[in-house]
Amino acid sequence: MLNIKSFLAIDFGAGSLRLGEFEVNEAGGLRLKGFAIKPLGAEGAQEATREATILKALQEVLVEKNIQSKNVNVCAPGFHVFSKFVRLPPVDAGKVTQIIQYEAQQNVPFPLAEVVWDYQILGSAPSGELEVLLVAIKSDVVEGLFRVAEQAKLRLNLCDASPAALCNAFRYNYGDLEDCTMLLDIGAKTSNLLFFEKGKVFFPQHQSGGECHHAGFRERGQIEIRGRRANQDRRGLRESGRRV
């Protein structure tokens, strides 16, 4: 990817589309050229309307921000992704892939023929066990993301899962931190909770998102989402380019 002068990173969330345009600087690092956040509304969380909704939002952002980059890496929405942290017994290096495939067959809740799945080795425990992140996305979801990119005249190079993307971004930017650090990413339908300490990473499964909690508030206080977000804006709880 670093031979490409600039590229887009897009997070297709359940409630909003978040886009960043990056370029490679002289030292080989990344420079953020611009970013945008586009709400998707209720249609973004409904399967029947989601693909058309994210395509429309993406096309609008590309025009509004005058985006010229054509290469794109995308992050699939958390509610479409199965992820699990597993530990594997110490094995010969040549058998690691075979063991991980067995774990995928046991843990992924869909036939492997119906998903696109991958793994990332995050490290090893003192006992020698491998700490592995398993991720799987239904094939039709990935095909939909490719269709969106193609119709927006973009070249999709990578489809990632949010736990892996967050883990890699944190390690890239704060790899020298030794103290225990918690990273919390609250989405509309799912949340990611990651802990980092001395090069290790751990994340418990956490499937509730912001809208689950807001639903409880709405039931008790009859607060509409639109009004609640307006209140957050006035109180400064939501800032452009950040999530609380």
Low-confidence stretches: 212-220, 225-244
Strand order of the largest sheet: 3-2-1-4-8
Strand content: 25-35%
What is the level 1 CATH name of the domain at 82-133? Alpha Beta
Structural class: alpha+beta
**Oligomerization state of this entry?**
single chain
Estimated helix fraction = 25-40%
| Mean pLDDT over the residues | 81
The count of helical stretches stands at 6
List keywords for this structure.
244 residues; disordered C terminus; 5-stranded mixed beta sheet; 3-stranded antiparallel beta sheet; single chain
Summarize the structure.
The chain is an alpha+beta fold and 244 residues long. Helices cover 32% and strands 34% of the residues.
Q: Could you characterize the architecture of this molecule?
A:
With 244 residues, this protein is an alpha+beta fold. It has helices at 47-64, 96-107, 139-151, 162-174, 210-221, 225-235; strands at residues 6-12, 16-24, 30-39, 71-76, 81-88, 115-124, 130-138, 155-161, 181-186, 191-197, 200-202. Strand 2 (16-24) and strand 3 form a beta hairpin. The protein is globular and about 55 Å long.
What's the helix and strand layout?
Blueprint: E1 6-12, E2 16-24, E3 30-39, H1 47-64, E4 71-76, E5 81-88, H2 96-107, E6 115-124, E7 130-138, H3 139-151, E8 155-161, H4 162-174, E9 181-186, E10 191-197, E11 200-202, H5 210-221, H6 225-235
Parallel strand pairs: 1-4, 4-8
Antiparallel strand pairs: 1-2, 2-3, 5-7, 6-7, 9-10, 10-11
Helix pairs in contact: 1-3
